[in-house]
Design brief:
single chain, 72 residues, mainly alpha, 2 helices, rod-shaped
């Protein structure tokens, strides 16, 4: 019998991708507009790095655990 359940990791990847794109977009907007927050390490551009990392990890999970993919 064929199981058609979707892995929870697919949905985690979807959420990571969505949040990563939003944070990355916000970081790029701050970088381009010059509106850097007044914090000590603002020049490291943490939203750009974290958004990119979350997007990459989310895309990895989306591809690895996509529905109908039997290579688990």
């Amino acid at each position: 019998m064929h199981s058609s359940s979707i892995s929870i990791w697919f949905f985690i990847g979807l959420l990571l991708t969505i949040y990563g794109v939003l944070i990355f977009g916000y970081g790029l907007y701050d970088l381009v507009s010059g509106n850097l927050p007044h914090v000590v390490l603002a020049k490291l551009h943490a939203p750009v790095w974290w958004g990119g990392l979350m997007t990459a990890l989310g895309l990895f999970y989306l591809i690895k655990f996509r529905p109908g993919h039997e290579g688990k």
